[in-house]
Structure formats: C-alpha cells, structure tokens
Amino acid sequence: MTLSLNKPKLDNLASDIWKSAERLRGKFRSYEYQSVILPIIVIRRLECVLIDWRAQKAAEVLKNRPTLTEKEVAKWVKGLELNPQQCPFSNRTDWTLRSVYEEDHALLEDNFRAYINGFSRNVEDIIEHFNYRATIGLMVKYNRLAPILNQYKELALGPGELSGLEMGYIYEELLRRFSEQSGDEAGEHFTPREVIRLMVELLDIPIPDRHLSIYDPASGTGGMLSVAKEHLLERAATPDERARVEQFVTVHGQELSPTNYAVCQADLLIKNDRQATVRLGNSLIPDDPYSREPGDQWPETKWRFHRMLSNPPFGVTWGGKDGYEKEARRLERTRYKAGMPRVNDGALLFLQTMLAKMAPVAQGGSRIAIIFNGSPLSNGDCGSGESDIRRWILEHDWLDAIVMLPDQLFYNTGIFTYVWLLRNDKPASHQGRVMLIDARGQCEKEPKSFGNKRNRITDAHRAWIETRYRDGWAEGYADEQVKVFAREAFAYHKVSVVFWQTDERDQPAVLTEPYLKTFSAANLKKEQEFHASDLSFRVQLKVQGEEKTVAFTVTPKDNAARKLKEALAGADETLAVEWTHRHYVQDDEYIPHGEDIAAFLTREIAKPIIRWEETRKDGKPILGYEILPNKYFYRYQPPRPAQDLLAEFWRLEKEAEKMLEGLAR
Fold this sequence. Notes:
The protein is an alpha+beta fold. The protein is built from 23 helices and 21 strands. The chain folds into 3 domains: 7-164, no CATH class; 185-492, Rossmann fold (3-Layer(aba) Sandwich), CATH 3.40.50.150; 510-582, Dna Ligase, domain 1, CATH 3.30.1490. Strand 9 and strand 10 form a beta hairpin. The model has no long low-confidence stretch (mean pLDDT 91).
C-alpha cells in the first residue's frame, strides 16, 4: 500500500481548525487551546459516525417495514443504537451540534451539556479525560461556545470524508501546533505513518493461526497499533486470513497523556475494534492504588506480548521533584535490574519495560521495534546505567539490528533517529551478531513540509531497507550501507593508566614546579600514593617574623603526616611550596574488547607504563558497551581545493558589492 495523503486538503483543513483556536486568543491561554478544540473535533467525528449509522439503519428498517412512519423508524433506530451489541457507542438524546446551535441561544449551554451527558459510558470516559465539562463553563464565560459550535456543526469529519490515517495526521498536526504555542518541549515526537509502516514490516508480523498480541507502552493517539493491525488486514489475501487476523490479533497500549488517551479511545470506538485496548497510566512505574497517578496497566507478571513497537518521548525526565524516580526505583531489582539511566533521559527505561514483557521463545517469542534518538547508543561511560543496560542487552543477544533513518522525518524535530530491532528468537544466522543499516539517504523531499517534517520515506525506500535487513545476514553479502558485527565489537575496556611522561630527549621527565594545592597531610599522602616514588619539597616559611626555607623528601615508606609536621614545626605561616617529582600522567584509555590491554597500552602510549587498572563494579572488572553507527559508516570527504574556495570567496564578494550598489541607489 502506498501511504499517500492529500497534503493540500489536510493542510487546509488543519488551518481552518487552527483558525478557531486563534479566535480563543485573549480569552484562553495558549496551552488551553487544545482543551477547547480537540474535544469538539472528537465529538463531531463521533457524531458523524452516528449520523451515518442512523441513516443506514433507517434505510434497512424501511426496507423491511415500509409502512412505518418517520417517527416510528426513528424510535426503532434509537432502540438499536442504545443496544451495545448493535452500535459501539450511542447518544440517548436527539441533539446534534447543529440542532443545539440552532435552538434558542439562551438555552445553548443547557442543551449542549444535555447532549454531552447523553453519550454512552465509553464516550463519557473520553469526555472525562478531556476534562471537557469544565472547559464548557469557560467557553460560556468567555462567550466562545456559540462560535465554536457554529464552526464545527457541519464540518465533514466522518470516516467517509477522512480516513483514520488522514484523521491521525490532522490530530497530530494540531497537537504539534498546540505544543509549539505552549512552548512544550516535553520531547513528544509524533511518528509519521511511513515510519510506523517500516517498523511494522521489519517486525515481520505473520497472519496468525493462534493468539498474537501487539503492545506499545507509549501509544500516543494510537498510530503504531492502528497501522500494525491495518497492515495485517491488508496482507490478508483471503476471507479466512482476514477472519484469523480479526479473531487472533489483540492490540494493547498505554498512554500517559489524558488528551492523547482520549483521542486514541475515540479512534478505537469509531473503528469498533473490540480486540484493541488502550489504558491510561505511566508504563514505567508499578501501578499502586495509593499513588498520585496510575502506573503500568500491563505488568509483566500477568502480560507478555509477541510484537512490540513504540516511539517513546525523547529525553523524558523521570527524576527530580516533578519526576517519578521513587516509584520507578521500586522496579530496580526486577524490571530495571540491568541498570537505571540518568534521570533526564528515560528512553532506556521504556526499552527495559518492553524487554521485560517478551513472550518466551516456547510461546512464540517476541520482536521489538523502537525509535530512539542518538542518546541511547552511546550516552554513559563504562559502569554507568546506560552502558550496563546496553551490556545486558548485547550479552543476552537480543539486539538484532539498528536502522539509521534520515533526518527531518518528524513533525517536532529535525534530528536523526534510529530504529532498534530486538528479538529473543534469533535464527542461527543472526545469533551473536548485530546488523547496522545506513538508511540516512533513503528519503525524498516532502512536497509541502509539515512543521519540521521536510523528508519522507516512500515505498521504494522502505523496500530498500527491508531487502537489506532480510538479505544482509548472508555470508559474502556486499553493500557499503550494511555492516554486520559480532556483538563483542561494541564492547570495550575502560582502563585508568598512569604513565611516565618523557622530556625533549625522550627520557623520563622530572618536574620542579610550584605546589598549588593546599599543603596538607591529606594531599601529601595522596601524592605519595600516586607517585610511589621520592618527592622533594622546598618550603618557604615565616618563623617568628623571619623567612626561612626548609627542604625535605618523602619516600614511599615514610609517614607523610609526620614528615610534614616536622617540616612545619614552629612556623607562623607557609609562604610558598616548590616540589620535585616524576612527571606522571593519569589518563583513561578505551580499549576494544579482545585486545591485549598491556600490549595496547605499550603500543598506543609509547611511554613507560607505571600501572593500569580496569573500571570495576562490585570489585570485578567490567566491560563498557557503546554503539557508534556514524563511526562505522564514516566516509572521508576531502576538503575543497584552496583555489576553489578562493574563487568562491571572490564570487560572493562581487555579489555583495552589487547588492551594496543597489542599496546606494
């Protein structure tokens, strides 16, 4: 399927809707716009579905009972509507946005509230999470209810006019604009449908013959889950296959934002997908009825999933006074036992959450596709939480591939992103190996940009990526955009090394220099331990008003505190200290796993090595892990010749002169 969209049509519709938000300026604050606009869009879309459904049922009733009056038909249809087995949602009243608006405006608020209160419980849940009843009061107070109802009472938002895909773009474009208006930098980056489609196809979801579950811990407005299910239904070649998808595939999501949750629930209602469940809450913390917010509604103690995909928010802060570090650390010995990342980037908490919910291989195993920015690849030094999480993933051989995507694919950010593919059911050809695919060039320009989204992935680009992921494991496969590494290639030793610097004659250097630290017993002991060789000091003192110089030497076996006390005995003041010591340098070296550490240090430092020690944890040396795709695909670009740069400079100089001449006239 080609994910083509009528961008001018959607852009015009989004702009028309946005105009109503701009009319709120001066009455509502910018961050409040979405609380007015998004609910009325959802209500109108639900209303369009109900109006179409009622018309269809009325035609069916009249066909079977042609003698019924219009009033009798309407009563019959209303009875069907209020039956949940007949209609997934309903409204007990006869109101519509149009009829509410066209009635006496003195009763506008009462009639609109009656209409809102008439919806069935599942729509009631959506309205509650929008907190819309309070917003209605503000709209009335600021005299904005009538204009808003007038704008939306006939807006064509039904599935016949806008597909789920198109409506998703409208929601996300509006949410992007609301985010920009409110200065929201929370890291929410809505996922383009072509990127979701790529992730879904890389997950290789089969047409099932038994239960198959799909999960997203940060489901947003539900795009990931919707595209996954739609993809399977499109691939179903026969009625039997389609029936199997409907019967066996269940989708499960969780979303932290009440607004996104409400939009997602409305979309599921319209689709009447009874095999899809999205719940409100924070996926990264345990659920606790006494907590200030709901936690994980799909705990791994009860739930496991066969396919998982997600685009968690980039750079989400989970610590600090506004975070949930205390709650998350309750899972530190179980779900997050590999490590806790830094508190200002929770990306790897989402990945650990998904890995904890993998189905055992005996039950079909699990595959994961998750979008990250560059941070989870290499942030954190050896022994840090991030490095230990990467180590845990690679040593369990779960990481299968990483796809480097083009920049400017997302609405709210222009950065490069990466799709990580993980699985616990690797075939023999994948085991112990990780594939990197450089797909940064696989895109074309958008005919019309959407926010920061200026590039797009077409069917051809997606096929290019999928072909390389499928075929690139074969021995002898040659493609400069595909590299397959042993998992150990990402491991390194971090070694703290002390070496003896050499002088201009390449001889071990000895320095005589001022001692600028506090001249204390504690510091002297540290110098003694670090150098493990004789240290000579010349100390200028003031004793009974006269200056005096004292010289002494501290050997590795001396009591440094006693030596210092003897040297300073009777002194009123220490004026200056000069010391002579071997010129030792301490540095950290990062050594690829598999290298002989001593040989590497001797070769690379080429100075006398005094001592070295690996980074340790719990008393044992540990490996660090980082993945640096840019390094592996680096291509040297020779600088432009000097004469070309000079010619360009003079060309620009002449252009500037002409511009100045034009201004002078």
